[in-house]
Amino acid sequence: MDNSLQERVLERTRVFSGRMIQLETWRVRLPDGREAGREVVLHPGAVAILAEPEPGVVLCVEQYRTATGETLLEIPAGKLEPGEAPAACAMRELAEETGYTAETLTQIASFFTSPGFADEQVHLFYATELTRGDAHPDADEFVRLRPVTKDEASAWVAEGRLRDAKTLVAFLWWLGQPGAAKR
């Protein structure tokens, strides 16, 4: 990438510290030498898991999201704990939200969710060779397991019904794989 576009951080001020995020204001030097302010949300990162227990079916959860005021269809996901490897977090979150464990876990992408103001990075995994077990979500987490077929996923994408970005990215990847039409 072009380093001539880089902004240099001159000063950082912590405005808020919560259990999941921190908010800082930054003073930066722009590429043309002027200074500007930035508001930055710091997040430890997250994982998301596209789990396929059988060909042509993936595991999703329905979960109410207070920030959006909606119940969303999402693939299982969760926040990284300090020092936790993304693959370990993916296995933990898959088991917590769905009860399934995976024999095979492959990282397929890492992406920033909203790079204009946040540093959150999601590590997307594809899980196969699944074994069913009992879900054990966090005490404040209420989710309903919802298997989704390839045809349903395709319809949700085509109709613009997916409102969760990580799930949209995962579905587009899954539907675009060679042989996806046969799954």
Automatic annotation (TrEMBL):
Keywords carried by this UniProt record: Hydrolase
Transmembrane segments: none
Cofactor(s), names only, from the UniProt record: Mg(2+)
Highest taxon above the source species: Bacteria
Domain named Nudix hydrolase: residues: 41-170
A single cellular component GO annotation: cytosol
Entry GO MF terms: pyrophosphatase activity
GO BP, one annotated term: nucleoside phosphate metabolic process
Similarity-based family: Belongs to the Nudix hydrolase family.
Name used for this protein in its record: ADP-ribose pyrophosphatase
